[in-house]
Design a protein that fits this description.
By secondary structure, this protein is an all-alpha fold. Helices cover 68% and strands 1% of the residues. A hairpin with a 5-residue loop joins strand 1 and strand 2.
Length: 308
């Protein structure tokens, strides 16, 4: 995919140019690209009036405009080709295409390891899983592997789907946070961080038309669904199914025991000749507790409850 960060950084660089004196010719190419290739501003009169080089001054009005970010986003979203368009130097290996289907693996793992919190949550868990299987994987394979050097709307469709899917992934992580083990959640978020970092590096490599770096970092980006599948599969199948929020509710329920049961438990524990059975009634190893003793303990418990 085309680098969204590149677009925003371009606008930021243009805005930062307001503090320069216009003598740094090393950045002329950047401002020229911003003005001519992306921002599309043509105002030579303003350049002459301000005494600034045309490349810098032409970027300034657009940087000051509130439509700059929306213009960058629209230019990025509707773009139908990548930086490798028409390149003969990009030779994608077979495993690059295979990793495009990692989203389908991640979606199938979501269906297999469906945690209990999805039953009560409003998060579209199963819908997201099926979108990964039926939409994201085929589009990723078509755009990133089959049409990487072509000018086609597949890139636009892939980009329009990938952006909300990443938002869904972050929402899923926030939704599952109160329910999973802290260690599992930490590994999950570490995988998210690695994926985002890999995507940024992949975009930078694509910007510089560095085929080898692009292949490496984009593969790391596509490994993300496999990483989280391993994390959640280990948590489910090895450590055992666990819901931290449900376990906390059980612990709270255990602490809210009737006062009579607490009194009977303390009385049973204070009798040295009897062994505690754990249910408020004590007995010896061979002789059950006498009926009169049970009645006395129950009467004392009711008396304590009435006085409180």
């Amino acid at each position: 995919m085309v680098n969204l960060v590149e677009c925003l950084v371009m606008a930021t660089s243009a805005a930062a140019a307001t503090g320069d004196d216009g003598n740094d010719t090393s950045m002329m190419g950047v401002y020229e690209d911003a003005s001519m290739g992306m921002l599309g501003v043509d105002d030579g009169a303003a350049a002459a009036a301000a005494g600034l080089p045309f490349e810098i001054s032409s970027a300034l009005p657009s940087a000051a405009s509130p439509d700059t970010v929306s213009q960058c986003l629209s230019t990025w979203l509707i773009k139908t080709h990548t930086h490798f368009h028409g390149s003969d130097d990009l030779h994608l290996p077979w495993y690059f295409g295979a990793l495009c289907w990692s989203y389908a693996v991640g979606g199938m793992m979501m269906l297999v390891v469906e945690p209990r919190w999805t039953k009560t949550s409003n998060f579209p868990y199963r819908c997201m899983a099926w979108m990964l299987i039926l939409l994201q994987s085929p589009l990723s394979f078509a755009a990133d592997y089959l049409s990487m050097t072509d000018d086609t709307y597949i890139h636009t469709v892939d980009r329009l789907l990938a952006c909300p899917m990443m938002v869904f992934e972050l929402c899923k992580a926030l939704t599952m946070m109160p329910h999973v083990r802290w260690g599992t959640f930490g590994l999950y978020m570490a995988s998210v961080a690695v994926a985002i970092g890999s995507f940024v590096k992949s975009s930078q490599a694509q910007e510089h038309v560095d085929a080898d770096a692009f292949i490496f970092w984009h593969n790391c980006w596509h490994v993300y669904p496999l990483l989280v599948s391993v994390v959640m599969g280990f948590d489910y199948f090895v450590l055992g199914e666990y819901d931290r929020e449900a376990a906390r509710e059980v612990d709270v329920a255990k602490t809210r025991r009737p006062l009579s049961a607490v009194v009977m438990e303390q009385a049973a524990r204070s009798t040295p000749s009897r062994g505690y059975m754990g249910d408020g009634i004590s007995s010896t190893t061979s002789t059950p507790l006498r009926r009169s003793t049970r009645l006395r303990l129950r009467t004392n418990a009711h008396a304590v409850a009435a006085s409180s």
